[in-house]
Amino acid sequence: MNRVITSFNTFFLIVLFLSLIFSIFSLPKLNIDEEQSIRVNFYELIQDDNQLFNSSIPDIGIKKETKNLSSNNKEQKVVETAIISKFKINKIDIKNEISKIKLSKEREDILRVSAIIQERISSVWIKPNSLSESLIAKVLINLAPSGEILDFDLIEPSSNNFFNESILTAMNKMTFFEEVLSLDRKLFEKNFRNFNLVFKSSGEIE
Amino acid sequence: MIRFFLLSIMLVSNSIFSILEIEILKGSDNLSKIAFVPFGIEDGVEEDYGEQISQNIEKNMLLFGEFENLDKNEMLSYPSSEDDFFYRDWKVLGVDYSVIGRVNSVNALGNLNISYSLFNINRRIKILEGEIVGGEDNIEDISKIISNRIYEQITGLRGIFDTKLAYVINSDVDTYQICISDIDGKNEQILFTSKSPIMSPDWSPDRKKIAYVSFENGLAEIFIQDLKSGDRDSIQALGMTNSAPVWSPDGKSLALVVSFSGNPDIFLYSISNKRLIRLTNHYGIDTEPSWSPDSKKIIFTSDRSGSPQLYEINTKSKRKKRLTRDGNYNARGRYFPDGKSIFFVHGNDGNFQIAIKKLSSRYIETLTSTSLDESPTISPNGNIIIYATKDGSNGYLGGITLDGKARFSLPVKNGSVREPAWSPLIN
């Protein structure tokens, strides 16, 4: 009796193990009926759709946002296969998209903070009159993560001493760029730990 | 593998060589704030002098609206030497620069030794110090010298507080006066009064003479008047009428308009040998000449294209070039002191405004917002334009800094003021 129970247990464990393995490695079956839709938000996916359906599948009235499946079973299977295989491809696309979104978010953050810094410096820089001269000077800024200006240096002065002095005077009015506090630390280290301010005078009245 | 290697190089090079750059093109609309601290005095010197000098300097520096001041009552202390000067006392009040000084007596004859210092509060450094010895009667002149030095140190431009202005006042229907005064309107001096119109005053480069047009003999005639002696001489050039005289930068000749049989053209007139040299010869009206700072070219107004436009002519080759094309009225052109730009009266839809144009650019920019502006004249440092304009029927002098931050009007005179001419600097 014990042997029977042991064998049953062993069988049960094997079945359990197999079903676990099966559940791990089996792909989820994607069923899409006429009422269901998949939102395709990414431009690349839309392009892929067009390529996919244009090349291998006859025109079945697939729209960019909603894919209506035909009533024909054979065609439905083809479409399902196509979409499933497409989903396999698009896992990579989605990863790319996520990294793109991340990059674009980073870019947005950099632009946002840069614009605020630009505005704040402009509000304190009393630009000398230099109608006939085009001048450029560059200041290297070293920031703490708190936004405190640890150091600044006029690394590329212009040929006009009063233009340079006006820049140093403006820089001395600034102590903090607290806007960087809103940034991710890695983003701060990469872009705002050290950055340049390029002061320009076009030589025109502005 | 190769792709990975290349990507690694790109990332490394990116992190090593690229650094975020933020461009700053626009400056603040705010003005620099200056604290003019009453000058300290030595025992035995009249207390009034310390206050008087700092007030004079303050008035000068604020004359064209280029700076703002800190009210004396807001000051936390009145330091008169560097030892008593604490940057934090001024930083906390939002001051950009502080002027301090001290008046010491030199001798019993009334000579004073005035020492002064200028501090950049934001940079926490002293940027100017100096001493002047002068008489008690010269407090105003001493204040102007100190004001010039402070102005130069802050702006990088020559100070203009000791310059003068010539202008014409039309006080009654038939009374015209040509006057000169200090740039702040003080010390007005009437050079000549006439019942006929007086026009177009222009300073000789040494500031000793003024040339102008008078109609006292019925026709437009050019006179040169010596400012010290008051002597007047008609240049008696040929032709029916002579007008619009402008001194050459070397003071040896005049550019002027001579009209033979009713057709005005531009000529050069040598003062020493009284010779006329024709520059233009066109059936259109050529008028309002003015020299380039290097004496090589003359800008003038001509209607040869059908409307008044600005042209320049090389005085040697006599090659001409049209300078303006925008709008149907551009007249009374003058060069900037650096010779790279011009300013003039630009007419558009019945509005006449002061405009500027870089000679290397196609575009013009109007500076003023009033609608009947005329006769612009520029400060010798090239930073301020004064022009005649109208409020109803009354003419007055308005001014604007080239950065457009400050607009001002000069003290009102008895009568309509027209045709301002800014004197050169004293070298």
Entry keywords:
heterodimer, A: 206 residues, alpha+beta, Fusion Protein Consisting Of Minor Coat Protein, Glycine Rich Linker, Tola, And A His Tag, Chain: A, Domain 2, 2 domains, 3-stranded antiparallel sheet, B: 427 residues, mainly beta, Rossmann fold, Neuraminidase, 4-stranded antiparallel sheet, globular
- The structure class of chain B reads mainly beta
Q: Tell me the distance between the termini of chain B.
A: 73 Å
Biggest chain contact: A-B, 43 and 37 residues
- In helices, the fraction of residues of chain B equals 10-25%
Bulk shape of chain B? globular
Q: By CATH's scheme, which homologous superfamily of the largest domain in chain B applies?
A: TolB, C-terminal domain
Instruction: Tell me the number of structural domains of chain B.
Output: 2
Walk me through what this model shows.
The complex is a heterodimer of chains A (206) and B (427). Chain A is of the alpha+beta class. Chain A has helices at residues 2-25, 43-56, 73-122, 161-173, 185-192, and strands spanning 135-143, 149-156, 194-201. Chain A has two domains: 27-104, no CATH class; 124-201, Fusion Protein Consisting Of Minor Coat Protein, Glycine Rich Linker, Tola, And A His Tag, Chain: A, Domain 2, CATH 3.30.1150. Chain A is built from five helices and three strands, in the order H-H-H-E-E-H-H-E. In chain A, strand 1 (135-143) and strand 2 form a beta hairpin. The relative contact order of chain A is 0.10. Chain B folds into two domains: 32-155, Rossmann fold; 164-422, Neuraminidase. Chain B contains four helices and 31 strands. In chain B, the strands form seven sheets. In chain B, strands 2, 3, 4, 5, 6 and 7 form a six-stranded mixed beta sheet that branches. In chain B, strands 10-9-8-31 form a four-stranded antiparallel beta sheet, with no helix packed on it. The termini of chain B are far apart. The model of chain B is unreliable at 1-16 (pLDDT under 50). The A-B interface holds A 110, 114, 117-118, 121-129, 131-132, 138, 140, 160-163, 165-166, 168-170, 172-173, 190-192, 194-200, 202-206 and B 15, 19-28, 30-32, 96, 120, 122-124, 155-157, 336, 338, 340-341, 356, 358, 361, 365, 367, 382-383, 401-404.
